[in-house]
Amino acid sequence: MAAKAYASTVLNAPADQVWAFLRDFGNLAEWMPGVDTGVIEDGGPSDRVGCVRRLIGPGDTVFRERLCGLDDSDRSYWYEILESPLPIRDGRGRIRVAPVTDTGRSFVEWRGEFSADAADEEAMRKTLSDAIYATGLGALRKRFS
C-alpha cells in the first residue's frame, strides 16, 4: 500500500482565477519556494498531457514530473514523479481547486502517494505534506491575498 501525503488551504480568490494560474504545469518556479527554475523539457505547451517539467531546486537538485491528466471541469491535474533526489519511488501527485460557495473563495488541496523504504516512509510523508505541499500552498495563499 502506498504512503500518502496531503495538505490543503483556503485562498481569498475565486476558484476559476486560482485554477487559471495553477493549470499551467510549467509555472511552479513562479510560486513554489525552493524551486529556482522550472521548464517544460521539450518546450511544448505546459497543459499538454505527457509533457515533462524539469525543476531545479537548492544545490541544483532535480525533480522531473510528467503531467498525466488535466481536467478543467474538476479544476485539477495529476502527475507522476520521474526523477527526485528524495528516497521515494512511484510518486504521484494531484492538485485540485474547488469553490467555497458561501464565500467566493477557493479550497485548494495537494495530495500525493509514494513508496519508500520503511525507514524513510514517515520522514518522506512529513517532507511532502509539510515542507513541499503546505509550503507551496502557503505561498499561494500570500499570492492570492
TrEMBL record:
Gene3D superfamilies in the record: 3.30.530.20
SUPFAM superfamilies: Bet v1-like
Entry-linked InterPro entries: Polyketide_cyclase/dehydratase, START-like_dom_sf
A Pfam family hit: Polyketide_cyc2
Stated name of the protein: Polyketide cyclase
Species in which this protein is naturally found: Actinomadura rubrobrunea
